[in-house]
Amino acid sequence: MTNWEICTIFNEIAELLEILGENPFKARAYRNAARILESASFDLRELVKDGRIQEIPGIGEALSAKIVELVTTGRLNYYEGLKQKVPPDVLQMLKISGVGAKTVQLFLHNQITSLAELEAAAREGRLQALPGIGKKTESEILHGLAAMQEREKRWLLNVASMAVKEIGSYLAGLDQIERVEAAGSYRRGRETVGDLDFVVASGDPPAVIGRFAAAPWVREVVAEGDRKATIITVWGLQVDIYVVPPHLFTSTWHHFTGSKEHNVALRERARQHGWKISEYGIVKEEDTLYPASEEEFFRMLGLSYIPPELREDRGEIQAAELGELPRLVEAGDIRGDLHVHSKASDGANSLEELAQAAMARGYQYLAVTDHSRSLAFTGGLTEDRLLGQREEIDRLNGEFQGFRLLAGSEVEILPDGRLDFDDRVLSQLDLVVASVHSGFRQSQEALNERFETVLKNEHVDIIGHPTGRLIGRRDPYALDVGRLLELAATTGTALEINASPDRLDLGDNYVHQGRKLGVKFAINTDAHQTRYLDDLQYGVLTARRGWAQKQEIINTRPLDELQKWLKNHG
Ligand code: DGT
Ligand code: CA
Ligand code: CA
Ligand code: ZN
């Protein structure tokens, strides 16, 4: 619990009290306390630890006790109780600009108790009928609601990545800047980000903040201080920036990289050693240490370097202490992509163009895996066209040096568990990816059986995008993924980590679970156009978040070893 979080909770308590019509003095006391804490230069966690919490001027006994409860337990019973007394959407309503406690009270008295009801009422012009709300306020609320929902939404990695490049290069170009780095969930490689966080080292923080707030891609400045600011970009994405003097850079960067859970666990371990860590450095005995790099930061804490992707409090701190962290797979380890489409089905490029693009990326091989016949709307290949493509690939391979196209298929898993091609056809291919694109509303039982049949087929090398989810758009199939992982470990079938930013399928949790069982993975882009071969980076991040090592990813193998694997696995 940081000062900032405690302030937020106190402000919310004040608003809840007003909505519930409680004594106005009570609400005022919380709001005043939040204001005092907001501008305070001390760290509440420290004061609580030192038993000096009573000393803050203007904060009475009752509120000090609440701060102690928040700092020591991470929650506050009183606050949880208040939230129970109002409909669940109330805190969200308060985040709409221009909507305060009084307005929410009015909504609730008029049976508007959810965001959906609020939106409907505003759209239908029923809001302006309420006392004190005119036509103009109604349209402001509607606009504010949309803006709030956009702020709250999570963003895919490709959008985040585009914004990080743009913002990063703008900041790096400023005179006053010594170093600029992205932090937060983006740096940890999470599959979606809520907002972007940047940490900057500079001798003149206010100047940097001023330039940041005036950048061409800023749509709205939400908050601006001497060392930090929050803005909304023209793309809709929110960005937080923290600017610190150079000696504080590493501690601040680590702090705002998170995750929150990792930070809490790391802080707790430090406390047990009698040390203290925060964005202001590491305090050991009487000394404050300012690590110059994160490697040094972790070394000072007696730990090996923990890559950002692992900082989720999933056992990484203990593993770092024992020197047992995995050596994570890296983008440079990938020797080729094993799932791409050509214009023979629904891709945009010829075989030759695909091969050139793969060679330009330093790959040794690329598997062409067009859709199969039953996926007719994609131009899925018939048996004849597939075997024709095989010949074309053989001919092209005769012209390449140090590179090979692999003839494959993304063969459709039919609703009854059979594959779109029989074994005689499959056996003539270098590689088979089997995927589901239809009939995914089946029951869990049916899906489990369907996949079991496919995994037991010796010709199937890889299961494509195994859960079928589309992030933010479509839920995964009802398939029991735990079972799939166990089965894949037994049959030796590789599971895909589909690198397309709207899939990332399998996701990091399943990779983490699967590698413990001995499952092998393939990081593939499923590119339908050569430029999407670059999505590979997102798949690598997902694999790393799942603790995957190079040897667990089949497409890190050199061509001859990959070919051996394709022949002999399971
Ligand atoms: P996101 O933005 O929801 O995808 O996730 P994060 O992890 O980027 O979270 P964010 O942007 O709220 O904060 C960035 C990191 O800063 C977070 O992982 C932990 C750290 N952090 C430090 N102090 C605070 C604090 O007072 N509140 C929160 N929420 N995070 C803090
Ligand atoms: Ca963030
Ligand atoms: Ca943030
Ligand atoms: Zn595909």
Characterization of the model:
The chain is α/β, with parallel strands linked by helices and 570 residues long. It has four domains: 3-151, DNA polymerase beta, N-terminal domain-like (DNA polymerase, domain 1); 155-244, Beta Polymerase, domain 2; 255-322, Beta Polymerase, domain 3; 331-568, Metal-dependent hydrolases (TIM Barrel), CATH 3.20.20. The chain has 24 helices and 17 strands. A seven-stranded parallel sheet has the order 11-12-13-14-15-16-17. Helix 22 links the parallel strand 16 (494-498) and strand 17 (521-524). Helix 1 (3-19) runs antiparallel to helix 2 (24-38), helix 21 packs across helix 22 (508-517) and helix 22 packs across helix 23. The protein is globular. It starts with a helix and ends with a helix. The mean pLDDT is 94. One calcium ion is lined by residues 184-185, 193-195, 197.
- For the largest sheet, list the strands in their spatial order: 11-12-13-14-15-16-17
Name the CATH class of the largest domain: Alpha Beta
User: Gyration radius, to the nearest Å?
Assistant: 28 Å
CATH homologous superfamily designation of the largest domain = Metal-dependent hydrolases
Report the biggest beta sheet as strand number plus sense, adding barrel if it closes. 7 strands, parallel
CATH topology of the largest domain: TIM Barrel
Supply the helix-strand structural class.
alpha/beta
Strand fraction equals: 5-15%
Number of strands: 17
Low-confidence stretches: none
What is the molecular shape?
A: globular
Average pLDDT, rounded to a whole number, is: 94
Specify the helix fraction band. 40-55%
CATH architecture assignment of the largest domain: Alpha-Beta Barrel
Q: Tally the structural domains.
A: 4
